[in-house]
Amino acid sequence: MRSPQVLAQGDHIAILRDGHLTIEQRRVVTTVPLAAIKEVRRTGTTTLTLVLTDGVTRPLPEGNAYSTPAFHTALDEALPERRDPAGSALLTTEDGPAWIPQWAVWLGVVGFLGAYTAYVWLTGAAHGPGMGSAAFAAVPGLLVGGLGVAVVVRSATDRVLLARRGVTVVARRAYHPNGRRAGHYGFTDVSGNALTTHYGSGRATDEIHVVYDPEAPSRRHAASEPTYATVVKHALGLLTLGGILALGLWGALAPYV
Question: Using one digit for the tens of pLDDT, what is the confidence trace for 50-86?
């Protein structure tokens, strides 16, 4: 089975799925049934335009010299023999999930780096090179330590919930169509939903025990392990990352206290 083809240019994305094409742009998702498409025109080396059965045209995102022809071929092969003359009347539009524009992400990164540079320079200029070096190391320590502690706390909370209401099943190693071992295991919850987990992906066994939360099986699950192993791992993680966070706080506050 061929994977869904994608054309993407910034926030303009087209995805070819079974029986329909979805076009996402500025948080608006438009679904185009393949029966509403008359043809796909190559309007440039890397550009395609949809021609609907009622004559309305719609441009697709620009790809490159390889992705555009591949998408064109896949879409042509997927078009059904019988088309619906209603064309654009068959299209449906809805708001997609919230997203952050790429320019806002880059603006945030540049702003953070600028503020970081200014903070280190001002600290060094006012309190000497030694404190400037401490300030330089403080921000990465705060970020790594703070995020790490948050991850460990969330993982520990999930483990407590799994201990209270978790259901344990046997998960089996997944394999690629060519017979090679995949890096994940598959299991099925009590509702019959097929799920995957990357826990234990480094193990050589074909089966592992997985415990999952029946209220959120896809989001909260883990490889089954002795309680002492869970406690030791989380305690060591909290001590290590908490120490990094403490050093980061010291580096940030020492010049000013």
Answer: 999 999 999 999 989 889 999 999 999 999 999 999 9
* Residue whose entry in the numeric block shows the structure tokens 């990357």: 198
DSSP state, residue 186: E
The 10s digit of each residue's pLDDT in 207-257 is: 999 999 998 888 899 999 899 999 999 999 999 999 999 999 988 888 777
Give backbone dihedrals phi and psi of 179, rounded to 5 degrees, phi first: 95, -5
The whole-angstrom separation of Cα 107 and Cα 113 is 10
What does the DSSP assignment read for 67-83?
HHHHHHHHHHHHS-SS-
CA 233 to chain centre: 26
Q: Which residues pair with 195 in a beta bridge?
A: 187
Name the CA dihedral angle for 133, 136, 140, 141, rounded to a multiple of 10 degrees.
Answer: 40
**Three-state secondary structure call for residue 91:** coil
Q: Residue 147 is which amino acid?
A: L
pLDDT score recorded for residue 1: 47
